[in-house]
């Protein structure tokens, strides 16, 4: 998986990174959070000052109403709150969901030693919106694939499912089992299939997850200046057309249509498509037929 660089400087994402997000449904930022913050955030998670939004809150401040401005959440937290306030993290969110994202929910996911695998799932229910939410997954400690690394199925985000309806799938070609340094953050499209995998480690693994909603139309929110470069525009198309190993032959076209439609919405380029897959679906013969029929 690539490690995008632009957000690490606190600047908005590039078109290549957005194309990766559209195609694969997630971006990965290795070690983007500095060690000092990782230590404080880990202590908050271990100590329960940052707890799961679903569980009785350790502190009243650790529960927020969905729709609250993210900037009003975790303001007293020197760990997780400071992570969310990092320029790099704000730049990622700004590029994907825009300024002033809204809090949806959060959870601290702990994978205990020997804990079996979670069923494969997508969060929430079948969601047919054109807008998308982003889920950040933040790992304050290094994670190994065998030590409870999260499993992701790249490119699965357009396969809209109801939560654990996909639980019967154990392994898919091209799946990613996370293995990452401390301070890594993933940014996921809300539809991405994932699960906490069995932990063969001997210590609990902590991960802070937060879902945010956009408060503006998700159009040209990233640094789009590079789209003027024909080389970048070509690379974007290549990424959007690239199949994942679990696509079966011509099935790839189904994903390409969805990717083209999402990139079209996000770029504001109403003529964008990959080959003619989207255009053919949009072709309305009736007006032309009316011209030639009596
Ligand atoms: O613990 C993990 O690695 C993933 C957990 C998760 O994201 C979930 O339960 O929705």
Number of domains: 1
Strand element count? 8
Strand order of the largest sheet: 1-6-3-8-2
**Ligands present:** 2-oxoglutaric acid
User: Which structural class do you get from the secondary structure elements?
Assistant: alpha+beta
Q: What is the highest CATH level, the class?
A: Mainly Beta
- By CATH, the architecture is named Sandwich
Percent range for helical residues? 25-40%
- What do the pLDDT scores average to? 91
**Low-pLDDT segments, ≥5 res:** 54-61
List descriptors.
8 helices; 294 residues; Jelly Rolls; five-stranded antiparallel beta sheet; 8 strands; globular; 27% helix; binds 2-oxoglutaric acid; alpha+beta; three-stranded antiparallel beta sheet
What does this structure look like?
The protein is α+β, with helices and mostly antiparallel strands and 294 residues long. The protein has one domain: q2cbj1_9rhob like domain (Jelly Rolls), CATH 2.60.120.620. α1 packs parallel to α5 and α1 crosses α6. The longest helix has 16 residues. The radius of gyration is 20 Å and the shape is globular. The N and C termini lie far apart (58 Å). It binds 2-oxoglutaric acid (AKG). 2-oxoglutaric acid binds next to β2, β7 and β8. The site of 2-oxoglutaric acid (AKG) has 9 residues, from β2, β7 and β8.
In short:
The protein has 294 residues and is α+β, with helices and mostly antiparallel strands. It is 27% helix and 15% strand. About 3% of the residues have low confidence.
Outline the secondary-structure elements.
Layout: H1 15-24, E1 26-29, H2 35-47, H3 80-85, H4 87-96, E2 102-111, E3 134-139, E4 150-152, E5 176-177, E6 184-189, E7 194-196, E8 205-213, H5 230-241, H6 252-267, H7 277-282, H8 286-292
Antiparallel strand pairs: 1-6, 2-8, 3-6, 3-8, 4-5, 4-7
Bound molecules: 2-oxoglutaric acid (AKG).
The site of 2-oxoglutaric acid has 9 residues, from β2, β7 and β8.
